[in-house]
Write a structure and sequence with these properties.
The chain is an alpha/beta fold. It has one domain: TIM Barrel, CATH 3.20.20. The termini are far apart.
């Protein structure tokens, strides 16, 4: 990186929003868990390299979602009586409509996750098309107009933020800079969507998916369960929120499903914890914002 590039970095915070307001959670809860899943299927791999479409074993990692992972997660959530939000790429909906329809039939929220799972980069010419094509697919296949959005690869740009406002997105869930919901402020000072920040340690991809070409090893259940419980307990003491980023091609595998079952069973036993969808948490924020 040259000196000119360094000198061009703005001397302002990247996020202009103030720290999240301390709005109360619905009684009797004192903390919250946004239970969310990212359904990418093979688009998790083709978005890195379109040539992966011809690498059939690489593609099989993503195909696991429709064949096994998502049905197993839906079964687990039904057993536990929990509802969550499934951010799903348009490609996955078009390729596996029966999987997507099963999520809707089970009563879970559907969120926008792009079409091809392409990383939002500054000035990328495809982002508007990615958003519009994702909306079109969810409406055509599922009859859903999503109110929530999660960025592929968890990346964001100012242009994307403006595009989401234009398309009526109520909330996003991509940033890692708070432990409670807050409202974005666009660069021109106007309000943006509500942000439901992600809790980085609850991204199962970091702990439980190891491909043939990855140097990352799979963490044992005891390590991850300890990490997740400790984070949840401290967040409950803060009266804050945790947000999961769970992938069916990871947490839908046998050892990881057992881990998730134990963790969600533990979470359900916390009487002060509201386990719910992004739509419900954003709705609570809107209600408190209007009252304030």
């Amino acid at each position: 990186m040259n000196r000119a590039a360094l000198d061009s970095i703005p001397l302002t915070p990247a996020n202009l929003a103030p720290p999240a307001p301390d709005y109360p959670w619905p009684a009797p809860y004192r903390s919250a868990m946004f239970l969310s899943f990212d359904v990418d299927a093979e688009s998790a791999w083709t978005s890195k390299d379109a040539g992966h479409a011809e690498r059939l074993v690489t593609m099989s990692y993503g195909a696991y979602e429709a064949r096994v992972g998502t049905p197993k997660l839906l079964e687990l959530l039904d057993q536990l009586g929990l509802k969550g939000t499934f951010f799903i790429t348009g490609w996955a909906v078009d390729a596996y409509p029966a999987m997507a329809e099963a999520i809707v039939r089970a009563g879970h929220e559907i969120g926008h996750h792009g079409y091809h799972h392409l990383m939002p980069d500054p000035g990328a010419p495809f982002m508007e098309e990615e958003i519009e094509r994702g909306f079109e697919t969810l409406k055509r296949r599922l009859g859903v107009v999503p109110t929530g959005y999660r960025a592929p690869y968890g990346e964001f740009t100012e242009g994307l933020r403006r595009t989401l406002v234009k398309h009526g997105i109520v909330y996003t869930s991509s940033f890692r800079d708070d432990v409670r919901p807050y409202r974005h402020v666009l660069r021109d000072g106007t309000p943006g969507p509500i942000e439901l920040p992600v809790t980085a340690s609850y991204d199962d991809w970091m702990h439980g998916l190891s491909t043939r070409f990855s140097p990352r090893s799979i963490f044992p259940k005891e390590h991850v369960l300890s990490l997740w419980k400790d984070e949840l307990d401290e967040v409950r003491d803060w009266g804050a929120m945790v947000t999961t980023v769970l992938h069916p091609q990871c947490s839908g595998r046998p050892m990881r499903l057992r881990l998730l079952r134990e963790f969600l069973t533990y979470a359900k036993e916390c009487p002060d914890l509201w386990i719910t969808t992004g739509e419900a948490i954003a709705g609570n924020f809107l209600h408190q914002e209007r009252a304030a």
